[in-house]
C-alpha cells in the first residue's frame, strides 16, 4: 500500500540531530534562535518564535492579542479540530465562517461580515489564498499548508497581524512536532517572550512552556534548507498527475501542492477512496472531520464546507515518494480519469 503521507528525511537531517546530541544542549538555545531568524525571512516577517506545536502557536497568538474574556474568534468551518483546542484552552468562543469554493480558505466576504474579535484564516492544501483582503485588525494567518509561495504577489505568511505554521511530521517542513508564531510588531514580540521565558525572572506571572527545543529546531532548520527541493518535487509529481487526468500541465504559481485533491464525477468520495485502496493506494478525505461537524452544526449554514467534506479526496503526494509509486498512481489516474477531476481545476 502506498501511504497517504510520509516525511522526507536524508543524511543531512540525521547529521543535524547528531550534532545537537554531541554538543549536549537539547533545550531551547542558539539553534532555536537561528531557526526563528530563517523562518521570519521565509514568512516575510520581522520576527518568528519557534514553538512546540502549531496548536501552541495559535494559543500564544490569541494570548498576546489581549482579547477580552469570552472573545469571539472567527475560524473556517472546514478545518481540523486543533484550532478548537487552542480556542478552548483560553475559554474563547469560535465563530464559524464558510469557505470559498475557489480556494477552500475562509471566504473573504463572509469573514469581513463576521461579528468577531479576531480571525484565524488558513491557506489550505498548498493554495495561497488572498487572505490579505480580510479587513480585521486581529487577523492571524495560518500557513501550515502553504509555505514558500505567494498569492497575488503577497507572500504567504505576511498577510495578517500575526502568522503561524506547524511542523508536524506530515507538514511541508517536518520537525516531529513543532510550530512557529511570527509577526512585525515588536511590542507583541516582547509580550510573547515575557510569557514564554520563565527562568531567571524577578516576579512570577503565569507562563506558557511552549518553546521549541534545539533538537526539533535542528531538524526543522535542516528541512528548511531543502524547502526549494521539497516544493519542486511536489510540483513535479503534481504535473504528472494532472497530465494523467488529461489536463494542461502549466502549474499555477500560487500552488505548491501540499495535497493533491480530486473530486468524483460519477460516484461519491467514499466509493472513490475504496477504489484507490483496492489498487494499493491510500487516499483519504483531506480533513477527517471538519469543525462544523465536530461542533454538530448543520452543513446547510456552511454549504461550501459541506461540499468540500462530501467531495474532496486526497491522493498521495510527498517528496519522499518513490518513482515507482508515482508511476503507479499516475497509471491509476490515467485509467480512471473519467471517474474524477482535479480540484482546483488546472
List the helices and strands and how they pair.
Layout: H1 11-23, H2 30-43, E1 47-51, H3 54-64, E2 72-76, H4 82-89, E3 93-97, H5 108-113, E4 118-122, E5 139-142, E6 150-151, E7 154-155, E8 162-166, E9 179-183, H6 186-196, H7 214-224, H8 227-244, E10 260-264, H9 269-278, H10 291-294, H11 303-311, E11 313-315, H12 323-335, E12 340-343
Parallel strand pairs: 2-3, 2-4, 4-5, 5-8
Antiparallel strand pairs: 1-9, 6-7, 8-9, 10-11, 10-12
Helix pairs in contact: 1-7, 2-7, 3-4, 8-12
How many beta strands in the DSSP annotation? 12
Largest sheet: 7 strands, mixed
Which residue ranges are poorly predicted, with pLDDT under 50 across at least 5 consecutive positions?
Answer: none
- What is the typical, i.e. mean, pLDDT? 95
Work out the helix count. 12
Quick one: overall form? Answer: globular
Distinctive features:
single chain, 346 residues, alpha/beta, Aspartate Aminotransferase, domain 1, 2 domains, seven-stranded mixed β-sheet, three-stranded antiparallel β-sheet, 14% strand, globular
Short description:
The chain is an alpha/beta fold and 346 residues long. The protein has helices spanning 11-23, 30-43, 54-64, 82-89, 108-113, 186-196, 214-224, 227-244, 269-278, 291-294, 303-311, 323-335; strands spanning 47-51, 72-76, 93-97, 118-122, 139-142, 150-151, 154-155, 162-166, 179-183, 260-264, 313-315, 340-343. The chain contains twelve helices and twelve strands.
